[in-house]
Design goal:
Elements (H helix, E strand, L loop, with lengths): L1 H14 L11 E3 L2 E6 L10 E7 L6 H5 L2 H10 L2 E4 L21 H17 L2 E11 L1 H12 L6 E5 L18 E6 L11 E2 L2 E2 L3 H11 L6 E5 L2 E7 L5 E7 L7 H13 L4
Parallel strand pairs: 3-4, 3-5, 5-6, 6-7, 7-12
Antiparallel strand pairs: 1-2, 2-4, 8-9, 10-11, 11-12
């Protein structure tokens, strides 16, 4: 009896996933990790879209998952929330403080590994993943838009831009970007500011660079959901939206939902 019980336990252990992880435990990737929350009541089989979220300065994947409002919103939308963790206190991207010489490859390789891993472990539709992030996370998202445009259906940087200056050119194909920013942000000002030996970039320089790179046409101005938006579209149907809200350096989960719906309405998925 004891032998049969032991064999049964071993069989169950062999059959159970050795990589169990979720919103309250890390999904390990070597020395790095991420966390994920699937929609409430998900059957574990039906593929769903996902929001890949990059935290702010000194944030964490655990901290993102503590944002109950963000988790609830993603679940209500029927999508997974994937929380990244930076390689340092901040994202190791070009011109960032203490990482001025970085080319971003450390983080890009990590995100690529997360995308490959999460679509193996969970029922994620890899054609419906949007990258978003706030503050330093928004800076990370702009870099992803330039370096990995084909891995996401769109990008939603919030209150963050490139460090120092935007790159001269981004990788093809052109992606859709919905940038959201406070009109009086003192932490990441629209015109940028000095931080240690580097400088936060000018938001409009990033928008203008991507406008020219993607051949985005004439802008239209709209009031949408408390946001004042300048919307552009190119011949391929991609969108470049620059939306501002009244206020400073603040984050609302509704901005993420707004970006997702804007991309969906534009026919990105």
């Amino acid at each position: 009896m004891r032998l049969r019980f032991l064999l049964a336990v071993l069989a169950c252990m062999a059959a159970a996933p050795t990589f169990a992880c979720g919103p309250d435990s890390d999904c390990q990737l070597g020395s790095r990790h991420y966390r994920i929350a699937m929609p409430e009541g998900h059957d574990g089989k039906t593929p769903v879209g996902a929001i890949l979220f990059a935290h702010g300065y000194r944030g964490s994947a655990k901290g993102v998952m503590r944002n109950r409002s963000l988790r609830r919103m993603a679940s209500e939308m029927g999508v997974a929330l994937i929380a990244l963790k930076s390689g340092d206190d901040d994202w190791v991207i070009p011109h960032a403080p203490r990482h001025e010489d970085a080319d971003g490859s450390v983080e890009f390789n990590y995100v690529d590994a997360v995308l490959r891993d999460v679509t193996k472990r969970f029922a994620i539709d890899d054609s419906r993943i949007m990258a978003s992030g706030f503050s330093a996370g928004g800076m990370m998202v702009w870099n992803l838009a330039c370096a990995m445009p084909n891995r996401f259906f769109g990008f939603a940087p919030i209150s963050g831009t490139f460090w120092l200056k935007p790159p001269k050119i981004c990788k093809s194909p052109v992606a859709s970007v919905v940038h959201i920013h406070g009109d009086s942000d003192p932490t990441v000002p629209l015109g940028g500011r000095q931080i240690l030996n580097t400088h936060q970039g000018d938001v409009m320089e990033a928008i203008d660079m991507y406008r020219d790179f993607g051949n985005f046409g004439q802008e239209t101005r709209l009031q949408q959901g408390g946001l004042t938006c300048r919307n552009r579209r190119n011949n391929e149907g991609e969108i470049l939206d620059f939306c501002m809200f009244k206020g400073g350096h603040s984050f609302r989960t509704e901005y993420v939902r707004f970006a997702w719906n804007s991309l969906k309405k534009a026919g990105q998925f």
